[in-house]
Predict the structure.
Amino acid sequence: MSVLLAAAEPKVQLTSQTRILAAAIALIFMAMILELIRRDRLQERYSVVWFVAGLGMLAGAAFPGLLGVVADLMGVRDTNVALFSIILLLLLGLALNFSVIMSRQSAQITRLAQERAIEEARRQAGSGDEALEPEERRARP
Amino acid sequence: MRTLVFIPAWNEAASVADVIVDVRERLPGADVLVIDDGSTDATAARAREAGAIVASLPFNQGLGAALQTGYLYALRGGYDFCAHLDADGQHPPAEVERLLAEVYADRADLVLGSRYRDPAARLDTSGEAEDEGADYRPTLSRRIGTSVFRFFLTLATRQRFTDTTSGMRAANRRVMTLFSENYSPDFAEIESLQLAVRQGLRVEEVPVRMLERAGGHSFLTPLKSAFFIFKGMIVLLVGQFRPRRVEAER
């Protein structure tokens, strides 16, 4: 009986107090990102995703019905579950994105270290040596 | 015809000089390069004193990156052939000479020294002898790892390998070109074999004699070995899905 009643209740219950709080947090969050960019602590290309997250938060606070619509689309009865699922997926995607960026940068750092080491070794091997001939000029056997 | 012999070394000050002297004595025509992989001891200084060229990586990058540095140096320097061996004195330079003979004769693009293939097997028509060399006694965890990798690499490449993690190899320019661009920093030995076979290169194993380590300790503990094996299997699996590029030059 209580289950039926719960299902009939309005899907999103946010008091105006929580809505104001959520909107304030979203705005502060975006202001922080702007500040980080301004101080060169964060590059623009990595900030886009965070702005999108901030705007999403703001939209959720401004239009509480939105979450209900999304939950319906997902086929989830409980809007809280929908909210947490979305956030979880978003964070998972972000973490993966960072791993990809990290892998690329790690490969770049390795190559940089190798280039430096090779440069130094060639200098030691002696300039003017045949060993310094660039491979492009070399005829293949 | 120019040959580069390179030696990846990470904190091998105790043994690196002897290896260099041995190599120079045995292979007087070859240039010797030591890749100092961010050593914190006197490896680079000892290597220079012993007459090697030294490429010092600014921080420890792992064996894969160190070996790739050697292949890249050989490629850029216009060397026709290269070989590498470990800095701990396990690999006799005389055996490296035999590996090089195979690439000189163009019988293979990449030649590995295998401590598990009995030298007698070369004369044996069956070629199936797989006894361990008399000079080399591996630990249990190494033996398990070796057989697991042997099995999976053979499965992946459809070619029989006995010593998949061998750090004694000789190669020609085709291999230099491939490895200087595509070489996994994490799992150098096994993935590189898979890669070379998939790219249509001729990879061959030659039985060699290896010695006990002259200095330093093996980094493998049982737990690390288990992780190492697990990682290797994932690397091999992923490698099977990499695109197969047939080299235009062949």
